[in-house]
Structure formats: C-alpha cells, structure tokens
Amino acid sequence: MNNNFSKRLINVCVFAAYKEKMKEISVLSFICSCLYPETRKNIMGDFEDLDIKPINKRASGQAFEVILKPSSPVSEAAHCITSPPKRDLSLDDIQKKLEAAEDRRRSQEASVLRALAEKREHERDVLLKAMEENSNFSRMAEEKLQFKMEQIEENRMAYLAAIMERLQEREKHAQEVRRNKELREEVTA
C-alpha cells in the first residue's frame, strides 16, 4: 500500500511539473509546431527542462512524447512559493480586534432583538385589530338582533291589536244581531 501511495505521489508530482512546463510554452507556438514541422525543430530545442520527441504520424494527427528532465536545485528555488510574511500582532492590535468582534456581536444581538420586537409589535397589532373586529362584529350582531327583536315585538303587538279589534267588531256585530233579533221577536209577538 505504501508503494502505491509513492507511485501516486510521483504521478501527481510529474503531472504538476508537466502542467508548469506547459504554462511556459505559448499556445500559439505549440500549435504552430504541430502545423509546421520545419519550425518545430527550432522551437523544440529551446526548452532545457522539457524534451519533446515526435512520434510517427497517425490518422488522427501528429503525436508527441513529452519527457520531463529531472529538476535541478536552481529550478526548484524558482518554483518555490512563499507565503506572505506574517506580521506580529501587538497587544493593542489584538485588543482592537476583540473590541471590533464584540461590537459586531452586540450589533448583531441588537438587530436580532429589534427584529423580535418588531415581530412582537406586529403580532400585538394584529391581535388588537382582530379583537377590535371581533368586538365590532359582536356589537353589530347584537344591534341587528335587538332591532329584529323590536320589529318582531312590534309586529306581534300589531297582530294582537288587529285580532282584538276584529274580535271587538265581531262582538259588536253579534250584539247588534242579538238586539235586532230581540226587536224582531218583540215585533212579531
């Protein structure tokens, strides 16, 4: 397994070196070297760390074998990437950063609290509006019911008064008929 790892590591390193070398070759000159073989001989000799050998021409085009030469200590130093120097932080710088972080935390807390307060205010407004609409609806329903009850009572009283009036008229008519009957009986007797 260790052997496989070392093979993979070598493959990765070779690929990285090949990639770096390909960056050095201009794309245009590489294409020109493929199209014009006589100029290729001049161009191929210019690269010291890279050996390019043409392989027999194939149906799909030309093929090349790219051989990387072992890197020299000078070229390794040129490719070494250095990180930017870290500046030493003083106690004041650390204190300022901590204060800035604390200010950001407080600001974030304040914004969260503001958002919660606005949400609660909105919920309270919605609840108050719902209670007001409910009380308005209840009041309107009660007034409507009261009006209906009054109308029903007035209609009932009018109906009873009409019935009483008819009964009184019948009673008067019945008394009149009785009186007329008595008068006729007296006249005929």
From TrEMBL:
GO terms of molecular function: tubulin binding
UniProt-listed SUPFAM superfamilies: Stathmin (SSF101494)
Protein name: Stathmin
Native source species: Neogobius melanostomus (round goby)
GO BP term (any one): neuron projection development
Keyword Metal-binding appears in the UniProt entry: no
Coiled-coil annotated spans: 91-118
Family: Belongs to the stathmin family.
GO CC aspect terms: cytoplasm; growth cone
Keyword set includes Coiled coil: yes
